[in-house]
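Researcher: Please translate sequence to structure tokens.
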Amino acid sequence: MQMEKTMLNILPVPTFSWLGVNGSEHTVKQYETAYISADDGIARLDVQEGSSYKLSVAENQRSTVILYNNSDSSTSFEVNVSAADGSDVKLVEVFDSKAETVTKVRAELGTRARFSLVQLYLGGSGTVSEIAVEQGARSEFTADIAYELRGKDRLDLNLLTEQSGRKSTSRIDVRGVLSGEAFKIFKGTIDFKSGASGAKGEEREDVLMLGGSAVNKTVPLILCAEEDVEGSHGASIGRVDEKQVFYMRSRGIPEDKILALLAQSRTDRVIRLIGDSVTEQRIKASLGRGEEDE
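Model: Translation complete:
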């Protein structure tokens, strides 16, 4: 399988280079096409190295695809989604690998198509994730993303949705926890194109810092070439509430358990959105959570 160099996670409007968020070059393998079929059902797949997954959903059809990456070695793969008019597509991606990962998601949404993206990042020595969505008229795009990074974990996440269609909507919700020396970049861009009158978009990120050495970089961006649109973005970056920790310790809960519970609250919301008990139990087993942790 041949290797090639490519630029990933390019910021649509470059900023100062010293910030280190404009994009980065990576060497990836040339992909081999793998077609996914999940008509009106759920397809569960373990990620295969070097795969280019193709998911085409016909008009007014519903499809759910769950991709699970728990490889012990470096992995690169991409997913291409084509959602026809009136279709309803849900893509779940679980990144449960400590090795380096390079991944892309590309989605094209037809008129009134719905695309729901659910992602969960559970560490990784170097994960680079790129998401690009093109929205048609009255299409709906939602992204619910959570991450839990510890030690020297690194995540570089870039999401761009281009709203070209009239009355299209987007909602991006990202929540995560950083501890130890973890490092994370999240760039979220909503791009209202000319002609997207009546379109609405919102994005937000909620980051909890549990380590004094952890590094967080959040870059929310809204681009607008159309007047009749509504867009909003925001980020909340904070540390543990000492009063909350004191209260829980006074109830006999050890501090390490308290921090684990705070981290769990960020990821549990996204786990519940998966909507598949098989995958949910697999994740909880990997995290070492039992019924007592519910």
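Researcher: Any highlights?
Model: The longest strand covers residues 199-209.
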